[in-house]
Amino acid sequence: MTAKLTDSVAQDRAGGWLAEAGLRPTRQRVALATLLVGDGKDRHVTAESLFDAVSTSGEKVSLATVYNTLRAFCEAGLMREITVDGSKSYFDTNITDHPHFFWEDSAELSDAPAEELEIKRLPEVPEGAEIAKVDVVIRLRKT
């Protein structure tokens, strides 16, 4: 993650990101938001990778706070949670509908080109239900 916690432009961007969702800009939220969106780029993180980045910056934030903050960001509509293998969660700052590549060798998640994905048909849903969203994760390994 390239945004620096001391960069005022990055902090302003992070503060605006929190404000657009109506989230109170606590010290921890601003620190984490600065790392997530301070440079204006979308990214995929795990709670652990974000914890490592914030710890490296010198900010005191517990891993539990990182998890709770990421969940709050998701609930506020600022991020999406992508689950791989039913247990590993990645958090995406790009909230548009788009597919992902999961790189098995490095356990990294990256965006796949949405314009190249075509889903021709989905199964019929049970009565009384509707499709809320479709997550597409394409697993890759290097050859």
User: Judging from the principal axes of the Cα atoms, what is the shape?
Assistant: globular
Give the low-pLDDT segments. Answer: none
CATH class of the largest domain: Mainly Alpha
Integer tally of domains: 2
Strand content: 15-25%
Quick recap of the structure?
By secondary structure, the protein is an alpha+beta fold. It has helices at 8-20, 27-37, 47-56, 63-75; strands at 44-45, 80-84, 88-92, 100-103, 108-111, 137-140. It has 2 domains: 8-84, Winged helix-like DNA-binding domain superfamily/Winged helix DNA-binding domain (Arc Repressor Mutant, subunit A), CATH 1.10.10; 96-140, no CATH class.
Overview of this protein structure:
- This protein is α+β, with helices and mostly antiparallel strands.
- It folds into 2 domains: 8-84, Winged helix-like DNA-binding domain superfamily/Winged helix DNA-binding domain (Arc Repressor Mutant, subunit A, Orthogonal Bundle); 96-140, no CATH class.
- It has helices at residues 8-20, 27-37, 47-56, 63-75, and strands at residues 44-45, 80-84, 88-92, 100-103, 108-111, 137-140.
- The strands form 2 sheets. A 3-stranded antiparallel sheet has the order 1-3-2. A 3-stranded mixed sheet has the order 5-4-6, with no helix packed on it.
- β4 (100-103) and β5 form a beta hairpin.
- The protein is globular.
- The mean pLDDT is 92.
Note the topology.
Blueprint: H1 8-20, H2 27-37, E1 44-45, H3 47-56, H4 63-75, E2 80-84, E3 88-92, E4 100-103, E5 108-111, E6 137-140
Parallel strand pairs: 4-6
Antiparallel strand pairs: 1-3, 2-3, 4-5
Helix pairs in contact: 1-2, 3-4
